[in-house]
Amino acid sequence: MANVMINSTTLSFALGNAVAYGLGAFLYQRGISTIGTVYIISYYSGMLMMPIQRITRQLEDLQRAAAGIKRIQDLFVIERQIRENPLTDKRLADGALAVHFDHVSFGYDDALPGETSPSAPEPGEGIQEEAPRPIVLHDLSFHLKPGEVLGLLGRTGSGKTTLTRLLFRLYDPDSGEVRLGVPDRENGLLDVREVTLADLRQRIGMVTQNIQLFHATVRDNLTFFNRGIPDEKVRHAIDELGLGEWLSQLPKGLDTELESGGGGLSAGEAQMLAFTRIFLQDPGLVILDEASSRLDPATEHLIERAVDRLTQNRTAIVIAHRLGTVERADDIMILEDGHIREYGEREALARDPSSRFYSLLQTGMEEVLV
Fold first, then answer.
1. Distance CA 369, CA 11 (A)
2. Which CATH number does 98-105+131-368 carry?
3. What's the confidence (pLDDT) of residue 130?
């Protein structure tokens, strides 16, 4: 539609200019008009181009707005599949959380809202067998003690990110249980389905390589617009993670407005802001999903210091492709096609020539886990 309008406008002006010049030449040759009149005719016809082009762009904006409204309406009709028990009042204990996966299996349902199930028969056809649901995680069982750091390795598509989504309860497992908690505290280990979503996602913090920043002040970006967090606490977190010098160079300090999407910030600075968010949240479980994969060496040492500070007295799951990222891990787990290929203490696996992790250390993780 936009191409038709643009091409039609261009063609109309080309024809209009041709008529203006042709008519001007005819009138000038007959002595009816002067050369100044011919110029005025061509100039006035050209003046029509700008307002008509503006109208064309405004029509394009209206089309985009209509498409945006349609997408918003589609979002409103989508129903949440994750339901929390309205009667539950269980909360996770403070401090580092233990993580227990007990025989967990999971597969994504690719059908979108409004789509017909692939097993639905067509008119005139008999009943078809239901297509098997692809399984992403197969019977996963592992236990992470409070305060331990797990290095999670695997090729793209092996199920690493899916595992973290189950912890956040963005999805529920098809079978098995995901448990969090502090074993020697009240309530002990709780199935994530027994905890309110608000408490669950407050006690788990995640940092990925893609950081979402808002067109808002530094303070609002760090606190997610929570005015209840005092500036002193924000500045303390910034100093703890080594961002004090960066903050002092901003023209308005915490009141400095950042561009949407992190414009004007380096990848390292955006990543450090994400770490500060988690530090202010003070979760019991931290998930780092490729958090330092796009950083230059000069910035990476600041990130490594921040990771050390962030994982102190907290349980952590570190998803990585680079060897240096998992050097702080207590345990290593390698996923392959949704199965646990290898799981054990990092130092023991590093000394075992028959282990997969030992092979990765010799070959180079960057070349193998891609």
1. 55
2. 3.40.50.300
3. 53
